[in-house]
Amino acid sequence: MNIINLIKLAVNSLLRNKLRSLLTMLGIIIGVASVIAMLAIGEGSKISIEKNISNMGSNLIMVFPSSDRRSGVNLGSGDSKKLTVGDCEKILDECPSIKSVTPILQSNGQVISGSSNWPTSLRGTNEYYFEITNQKIGSGRSFTFDEIRRSSKVCLIGETVKENVFGENSDPIGEKIRFNKIPFEIIGVLESKGQSTFGSDQDDVIIAPYTTVQKRILAITSIHQIYTSAISEEASEQAVTEIEESLRKAHKLTGSEENDFTIRTQEEIMSMLSSTSQVMTALLAAIASISLLVGGIGIMNIMYVSVTERTREIGLRSAVGGRENDILWQFLIESIFMSIAGGIIGILLGICSAYSVSHFMNWPVVITLNSILLAFFFASIIGVFFGWYPARKAAKLDPINALRHE
Amino acid sequence: MSKSIISLQSIDKDYYVGDITVRALRNVDMDINEGEFTAIMGASGSGKSTLLNILGCLDKPTTGNYHFDSELINKLNKNQLAYIRNRKVGFVFQSYNLLAKTTALENVELPLLYNNSVNSKERRERALNSLEAVSLSNRKFHMPNQLSGGQQQRVAIARSLVNNPVLILADEPTGNLDTRTSFEIMSLFQELNEQGKTIVVVTHEQDIAQFTKRNIVFRDGRIVKDQRIKEPKSASEALRNLPSENDDIIELNIGLRK
Question: Which of A316, A400, A405 to mutate to test the interface with B (most CBs of B within 10 A)?
Answer without folding.
Answer: A316
